[in-house]
Amino acid sequence: METITIKDIARALNLSTSTVSRALRNSYEINTETKKLVMEYAEKMNYRPNPIALSLRDSKSKSIGVIIPEIANNFFSQLINGIESIAYNLGYHVVIFQSHESYEREVANTNYLVSRKVDGLLVSLSSLTTNLHHFEELMEKGLPIVFFDRVPNEIETHKVVADNFFGSYEATEHLIKTGRKRIAHITSPIYLSITTERLAGYKKALEDYGIAFDESYVKYCHHGGKLASENEAAMQELLDMAEPPDAIFPASDRLTTGCLAVLQKNNIRIPDDMAIVGFTNIGVAELLNPPLTAVVQPAMEMGQQAVELLIKLIEHPKKTIEYETKSFRTSLMIRESSTGKVHA
Fold first, then answer.
1. In the 8-state DSSP scheme, what is residue 42?
2. Which of 62, 197, 231, 269 is the most buried (most CB within 10 A)?
3. Rounded to whole angstroms, what are the CA distances from 294 to 60, 109, 279, 280?
4. Which residues of the chain form CATH 3.40.50.2300?
5. Worst-scoring range by mean pLDDT, 98-112, 180-194, 206-220, 328-342?
């Protein structure tokens, strides 16, 4: 099968090669209709840019580094699908590293990607990252970085997040409306952006419905759910309270599965004895017994938005930029884990 070139696309669409080239690079100089026409035709004809030629021409590697806490997480795997779907069509390769919730590993990953001359980084912070010097130094040297999901307040750049406050508020409100009064929240370290935002939504829902906030019903897992023993210990502490919770709202995939394991081990019936709502994109939520009520984030769209913002920074470094924080609305998928009988 012959390889299609920019000249072939230009000839077929009756456009100049420079217009096609700029459209494929998502240049702001080309109008939306022309970009759409070129992109759709390029996809249909299976056009793929030559990365070596692009690198020689632009003095760029045409590669993007992505650092995430873990790939074995449905939310992050969906994000990566979104990132790759845009990057590939724009001629960029994606190099993915996992921090495994380790600050040291995150720094090592960053240094390696920079040594391989990536054109920019997409980063979701590890649960143990409190020092941002490795990113600040690179940005001062001109490396484009966009943060997503777990983002730092201290660094000024583009950020892509879910509306964590809304998602958490909606989950807590749902539990209150099903008759639950003692709602516990198991979450990540307090200094993570997702932790503070989800905790704020949880607190606000309690306040709006006249339920006093009780700090003893909130448990922080320092490793963000990665250590099963830490998750299980937090859940067991809640069950051992004089007045144990009648509902649990874990703030991530791993925390949710940890809670479910402890509830099963203690023969606690869901939702009769304990309702549960996860903040999770876990793929098997509706296959669990009972099916899990969950706050779902539009991960694919978040990944697409993050890489689009990064490529704009890479390709138009001298253009005056007003940095944006793009927030995506979550949705609550109500299933049987939260809708059963309430005991007085």
1. H
2. 231
3. 42, 32, 6, 6
4. 6-162+299-328, 164-297+331-338
5. 328-342
**Dist CA 279 CA 237 (whole Å):** 21
Closest to 151 in 3D by CA, of 171, 135, 167: 135
Antiparallel, parallel or unpaired: β 63-68 and 93-98: parallel
Phi, psi of 186 (to 5 degrees): -105, 125
The radius of gyration computed from the CA coordinates of the chain, to the nearest angstrom, equals 23
pLDDT tier at 344 (50, 70, 90 boundaries)?
very low
Q: In this structure, what token pair is assigned to residue 194?
A: 């997702």
CB 281 within 8 A of CB 75: yes
The CATH code belonging to domain 6-162+299-328 is 3.40.50.2300
Return the DSSP state at 326.
Answer: E
Amino acid, single-letter form, for residue 144: P
CA dihedral sign, ordered 233, 239, 242, 246? positive
Interval 251-280 mean pLDDT: 88
CATH, domain range 164-297+331-338:
3.40.50.2300
Say how far apart CA 64 and CA 315 lie, in whole Å.
12
Q: Indicate the pTM of the whole model.
A: 0.77
Q: Which runs of E-coded beta strand occur in the chain?
A: 63-68, 93-98, 120-123, 145-148, 159-162, 183-187, 218-220, 247-250, 275-279, 293-296, 325-328, 331-333
